[in-house]
Amino acid sequence: MRAEAERGHGATGRHAASARVAACLAPCLALCLALLAGLLLPGSAAAAEAPLAIHYLERRVERPSPLNNEDPIPGDEGAAGAELGLADSNATGRFLGLSFTLTRTLVEPGADLAEAFGKLGAPRFVVVNAPAEDVLALADLPEAKDAVILNVGAPDTRLRDRDCRARLLHVLPSRAMLADALVQFLVFKRWGRILLVSGTEPADALYADALKASARKFGARIVGEARFDVHGADIRNSALREFALVTRGADHDVVAVADEAGAFGTNLVYNTAAPRPVVGTQGLSPAAWGRPVEAWAGVQLQGRFRKLASRAMRPIDYAGWLAVHAVGTAAAKLKSRDPAAIQALMLSPRFEVGGFKGRSLSFRPWNGQLRQPLFLLWPGAVVATAPVEGFLHKRTELDTLGLDEPESACRAFGGRAG
């Protein structure tokens, strides 16, 4: 009897201990079940909140056939980057109860971009990959008065200058930023005498103007200029003779080429009259991103993009990714889907976003341009990163690239640098 009583007492003790453990675990179990229900049940409060909508609007641009059987510009350039930005934002947002959608709209050449914008309803975040005139037209639409427009396709410096608009943010570097990055490198190397060869397209003239402005800014010299008209010339067979004539002239350290469409610049390399490096739109080129970029965990971004798009990430892809990523970052910082609050944070001087460049990036409060380091790229290698060592600024050396506050005529933002 005593043995049975002891066994009964032991069983009662074990039951009591089990009850205490169950009582302790019950709140945790209830919380886990509640969180699981919030993630999985369509009728839950979490699922009832609509995702934050982001739009990608692109104007298709007719492009010339590539030279020398080079790979054409991908049809999904920019859009593929935005899709990766969406995937990354949703991956982060899941931990915060946030979700995002991306609607892609393509407008063919000659079609009405404003009409396409109107069909978006009342968008609050629009990533735009289009020429400068289209970007300005969209920013001036009454339907866009409550939208933040993120420019990923127009490098025109004037959009960051006198033609700026409130709530128009520029994720893509301006031509002024690209030219400043290149000329800083040339001055650092003491290759300050530049022979400039430009194409005949309007964009080529804008790139050349940016190089001239950068040369004045940093103390380099344009010692000679030439224009090359590719129309009617078969440079595949005559490049050796044609470019030897074009690049004769004053003594120079480098040949800078302004050929944004890639009509002849590739063939200029190794065909100059004197043995000089070719820099600019071809040769050693400044860019926000490129296939060789791997530092600061950039290799991870490159890998995810290649898995998504089955190709290398190009500069406009990077801008598309960064634009969507910036919206997702602002929402995550606020832990909110409120478009007005997200816009206010993105437009404020305190907003920062990561971009796999070793430092936080931010929008300039006087013209909406994203501050960011740029790379000097040769196929297969990153030669240097700008701002280059020795180029200093009282606020941040990133402001040595592109229009600094005293240089910009933008008055739409009304912000002052902090």
Structural notes for this entry:
With 418 residues, the protein is α/β, with parallel strands linked by helices. The protein folds into 2 domains: 52-173 and 289-407, Rossmann fold (3-Layer(aba) Sandwich); 177-287, 3-Layer(aba) Sandwich (Rossmann fold), CATH 3.40.50. Helix content is 38%, strand content 16%. The chain has helices at 2-40, 45-48, 79-93, 113-118, 132-139, 175-188, 202-218, 235-246, 265-268, 298-309, 315-334, 339-346; strands at 52-59, 100-107, 125-129, 148-151, 168-170, 193-198, 221-227, 254-258, 278-280, 285-287, 362-363, 370-371, 374-378, 381-386. The longest helix has 39 residues, at 2-40.
